[in-house]
Amino acid sequence: MTAFATLPLKPALLASVETLGYATMTPVQEQSLPPMLEGRDAIVQAQTGSGKTAAFGLGLLQALDAETIRLQALVLCPTRELADQVSKAIRKLAANIPNVKLLTLCGGMPLGPQLASLTHDPHIVVGTPGRVQEHLKRGSLHGGGIKVLVLDEADRMLDMGFSEAIDDIVGRIAKHHQTLLFSATYPEEIRAVSRRVQQDPVEVTVDAPAEEKPAIEQQFVEVEPAHKLDALAQLLAGERGQHALVFCNMRKDVDAVAQELDRRGYSALALHGDMEQRDRDEVLVRFANRSCNVLVATDVAARGLDIAALPLVLSHDIAHDPDTHTHRIGRTGRAGETGLAITLCTPRERPKAANIEQALGAPLPWRALKIASPRGKTLNLAPMKTLVIDAGRQDKLRPGDILGALTGDAGLDAKDIGKIDVFATRAYVAISRALATKALERLRAGRIKGRNFRVRALG
Ligand code: AMP
After folding, report:
1. What parts of the chain have a pLDDT lower than 70?
2. What pLDDT is recorded for position 210?
3. Does ligand 1 have an atom closer than 6 angstroms to the CB of 50?
4. Rg from Cα positions in the chain
5. The pLDDT value given to residue 267
6. Are 443 and 431 in contact (CB under 8 A)?
7. What is the pTM of this model?
8. So what's the pLDDT on residue 304?
9. How far, CA to CA in Å, does 412 sit from each of 60, 94, 156, 403?
10. Domain containing 430: what range?
11. Which of 127, 188, 303, 350 is most buried as measured by Cβ atoms within 10 A of its Cβ?
12. 167 plus 271 within the same structural domain
């Protein structure tokens, strides 16, 4: 635990930190601030709550010269909500530096007032990539004096399809600047962005405290073959069933199980190796954007799946061998939360359970499951619904355009809009289930980017 006073921060910033009541630095701040204050690029693995905003906020304010009226710091965020939050936090940190001008520029907001407030360059802009790119292109914002570029929640920005916009922005701002990249996860795409936009970055990863290491709870349930589906439906009915992966040993069972769960009111989809790439992509988009809550898959289809750790993994059939079993259960359990892996096993499958027990070197945790007779539909629909727009990157459609159309003319709130995925010729947007029909009608009646595209709902 180190005090902020040990850092070579401007007195005005130390005063703000004191006003905010931050006694010592958080681990992320402790590790990232010293190299950031030296002007180095940094790639920082940090979650919400880690104190990341204050880390880059102090970093960029330290580099700022308030007497020069020029845009000097640009913070890119995935959503308007985050941009608002970040703006507020930076304003508080800048409270003791006179005349700092900060502007928040996000998509989904009318352009006119933004243009009006850009008659003089602000010192700091916090915004979403699409809209910031648009201002830089129009010349309403000048990037030539930028000293610090921050990519906040970079993994989410990539998820939302902002990769090209970010590259374009980097090409439009001062060549020599410091780039601070913050991301909760480090998939290869993030490393690729870092390689493209950073120079010799300091890498900061803060280990989750020991009790936050992923933990997996296993349960084994013996069921008769005829009761497998009832057991599955029952186990999926809880909170964890809102995002679960179900494994089947055979392809034909994947389709049957997904259909049966769907019939029982779950938003379930099947994934197997024989599917066309386009259908596969679509299923994964729907699972990731929470419009499908149960993904039923074979081991082959699930291999290499780039999906975040899930709260629940179920084996409809016990795996043929212990290695496969280990791979399956490894799909659950994330930092700070215990994952649950439940394996159904018929009496005839007991020898496979014995193999797993031997490999595990410990008795298997069997539990009894009293199967209640299914009464009508156990509605367990996913919270979101997916709309497909028959247009994509080839039509120069960007996530910001879709967000803009929905929050603008269609009158939806940004909080009801989920993940947006733009492919070459199609785009998917997740909408809160209750508002999906309204959103579909509005999108059909209105225009996106001034054009009429075909829009339909999935599932
Ligand atoms: P963030 O991870 O940026 O979303 O910040 C999480 C919360 O931690 C915010 O409410 C900050 O005000 C607070 N915070 C940031 N740095 C510190 C610190 N050094 N000590 C105590 N609280 C902090």
Report:
1. 207-214, 304, 306, 334-336, 373-378
2. 47
3. yes
4. 25
5. 95
6. no
7. 0.56
8. 62
9. 34, 33, 21, 9
10. 384-457
11. 127
12. no
Alpha helix segments (H runs only) across 117-181: 129-138, 154-159, 163-172
The domain tally of the chain equals: 3
Domain CATH code at residue 256? 3.40.50.300
The predicted structure's pLDDT at residue 278: 87
pLDDT tens digit string along 90-111?
999 999 999 999 999 998 788 8
- Asked, for residue 375, whether it belongs to a domain, the answer is no
C-alpha–C-alpha distance, residues 434 and 417, integer Å: 11
Residue with tokens 């649950």: 340
User: Distance between CA 277 and CA 233 in Å, rounded?
Assistant: 28
Residues 6+ apart with CB under 8 A from 189: 155, 158, 163
Q: How far is the CA of 54 from the centre of ligand 1 (A)?
A: 7
From CA 269, how far away is CA 243, in angstroms rounded? Answer: 12
165/401 Cα distance (integer angstroms): 12
Is the domain of 129 the same as that of 258?
A: no
> Based on the domain organization, do 343 and 448 belong to the same domain?
no
Tokens of 189: 């795409």
220 sits in which H/E element: strand 215-222
Among 383, 385, 445, 384, CA closest to 411: 445
The neighbour count for residue 124, using CB atoms within 10 Å, is: 24
SS3 state at 246? strand
Q: What is the pLDDT of residue 439?
A: 93
Ligand 1 atom nearest to CA at 20:
12
Going by CA atoms, what residue is nearest to atom 20 of ligand 1? 22
Residue 367 inside a domain? The answer is no
| Residues 229 and 200 occupy one common structural domain | no
Rounded CA gap, 30 and 52, in Å? 11
Across 224-311, where does the E strand assignment appear? 244-247, 268-271, 294-297
pLDDT of residue 309: 77
Instruction: Confirm whether 319 is domain-assigned.
Output: yes
